[in-house]
Amino acid sequence: MDLCLLILFCRLVNIKSSVKRIIYSAFLGALSDCLLLYLNPATVLKIVFGNIIIPAFMIVIILYGNAVLNVKIMLKYVVIWYFCAFASGGIVTCIFGGSVSIYELLGCAVITVLAGCLALRRGSMAHIKESNENTYGITIYKRKKSLSGFARYDSANTLYEPVSGSNVIVCSIDTVRDFLTEGEKRYIELFPGLPDEWDGETMLRSIPYSSVGKRRGCMPGIILDRVCISKGRKKMIYKGCYLAISDNNISIDKTYDFLLNYKMKL
Asked: Which residues, at least 6 apart from 11, have a Cβ–Cβ distance to it below 8 Å?
């Protein structure tokens, strides 16, 4: 049943996980449930582990590296999982009562998957599907430092560094504050002004932008050694990119940290 539910779940949130991961996740989920039944803890612990911790554990196994995983998204995934299990259990009980064969169980799973496909057309699950398709894991490198997070592909981000023509990705100052040197922090605070005296090592570039509302301006930018974006087993490395640093938040719901250039897509 865990295997059927995982297939349904992957279809609902539009995540392409490997068959091996789904089988591992189903096996470990079933093993955890059996262990929970054997230990027979207090009712509260049964509810917490059975409905939250074990499903979250299974979801992490199949989705790690393939989707955004933060607290807010994980809560959405657990809720979707719970209703998948609730609906499947309800269908089985309603049609077959307390006893059911494996073939009847698979039939119920097929019906539930078809119902889930119809549900994709609207609501928050459709939003999750759309956001996961355009969200990648990202790691940026400069000097001996690295910073990892999530990046959203943005076809409207056509920014480029005007001297070299290099691709530009965008992030918030809050995201990269610890990644920057003290000199870069100071220069960015003064931007577009300049310090009275150059420190001999800090280099910023002015990245021009124009928004949909015809607002124009410049953002401070730093050159990166390399940028690695990934989704599942796919990976791409870009060198010579610039990072434009904005005063504003990039993502309102904080599901990603960077906006990729329109040329940077897997």
From this structure: 113, 116, 117, 120
Q: How many domains does the chain have?
A: 2
Per-residue pLDDT of 137-186, as tens digits, reads 889 999 888 988 888 888 888 899 998 889 999 999 988 988 999 999 99
Do 173 and 113 sit in the same domain of this protein?
A: no
Domain boundary among 131, 160, 191: 131
The residue type of 65 is: G
Tokens representing 109 are 């799973």
E strand residue ranges, the chain: 135-142, 145-153, 168-172, 205-210, 216-223, 226-231, 234-239, 242-246, 258-260
At 57-87, the pLDDT tens digits run: 888 888 776 565 667 777 878 888 877 777 7
- How much is the pTM? 0.56
Domain residue limits at 152: 134-260
Phi then psi for residue 200, to 5 deg, are 90, -5
DSSP for 204-227, written as a single string: -EEEEEE-TT--EEEEEEEE-SEE
- CA 59, 231, 150, 250 torsion-angle sign: negative
